[in-house]
Amino acid sequence: MGAITIDSLTKRFDDVVAVDDVSVEIEDGEFLVLVGPSGCGKTTTLRMVAGLETPSEGAIRFDGELVNYTVPQDRDVAMVFQDYALYPHMTVRGNLKFGLEEEPDYTDAERDERVEEVAELLDIGNLLERKPGELSGGQQQRVALGRAIVRDPEVFLMDEPLSNLDAKLRAQMRTELQQLQDQLDVTTVYVTHDQTEAMTMSDRMVVMNDGELQQVGAPLELYHEPTNRFVAEFIGEPSMNFVDGQRGGDGFESETLDYPFDSTIESSVASLGDGDRLTLGIRPEDIELYDDAADVDVSHTEAMTVTVVEPMGNENVVHLTYDDSETRGDDLIAISDGLRTIETGAELLVRIPPEAIHLFDGDTGDALHNRLLETDEQPVTQ
Ligand code: ATP
Predict the structure, then answer these.
(1) What is the CATH number of the domain that holds 77?
(2) CB count, 10 Å around CB of 125?
(3) Atom of ligand 1 nearest to the CA of 208
(4) Residue closest by Cα to atom 14 of ligand 1
(5) Is residue 150 predicted with pLDDT exceeding 50?
């Protein structure tokens, strides 16, 4: 129990189309994350699943049963929001117990037992007699989660529940939430604008933009096989590099980069004619940096100058510009090993490996070619 079908769901607020014909099947027990930039329709989608908004068109089904007009109390969902909305005058115990007030099947003793069980699960058993004002942000967030868990619902709906926490605590709570969801095995729909949260926590993620579903899939599927430029750019930090140009020469041409294609890539762009707009994408970690020409296969390699190095400890984020580039728009960002010393102003040989490139239609943004993975056939080299 706990499968959710979202079928051609649309929500309009006057002339704003907040959610535009979105369909997704959420499996029982799945952790599904809705992710996308601010205003893309994530919260509105979640609120329709919760029963807090009525769809303009389309259907929501819980285990096959239409719930479009079912009130939230009858949907067996529990919600956790960004602001914890705890009752300040009640103790933690009172706040947790409040979640069970409307459960007629529980006796008072059973309610106490359930509260203690959940408090242990969340490691807040020693805080039961404190009031929310006497708790840290992370502890308050645990209580808010606890209030959802005590009810043992079929579905958890969470809207940016970690965004009020500092970075370190957020990372810790991310792991805890994931373990908890695994343990409880309750279908969870989780909204965030943070792609790291989406990547690390979800079984599958739904990327939205402008009310429309862009792609749904497992995190690494979206990372390596984006369906369009929007998904490619949104997933990954630092973002994928994009070079805008055209089909021409032996493959791709732009003001700064001429890039020959091998036959595998050639077949992916066969529908394009010479001069058609094409965008080349490459992830920062796939770019190879060489100090010395003797070390590198010179095909697909250009000399570039380092403009900025951001040392992160485990890695360096290296900003590069083409030697003869007047505009900064075509710069690349690469990631190199943290132990390697790279100086600002250094001239490096920068190789973009053919097996790692992505190509997008320059007009529509649709992916024409995605990087090869180990499971794919290796490309025929030039
Ligand atoms: P955020 O991350 O900023 O919360 P979101 O992706 O959750 O954004 P929504 O809150 O779902 O986006 O909003 C989607 C669009 O619908 C936005 O353009 C928003 O302004 C609009 N919208 C949302 N609720 C209403 C409302 N009650 N009345 C009018 N427009 C609304």
Answers:
(1) 3.40.50.300
(2) 14
(3) 6
(4) 41
(5) yes
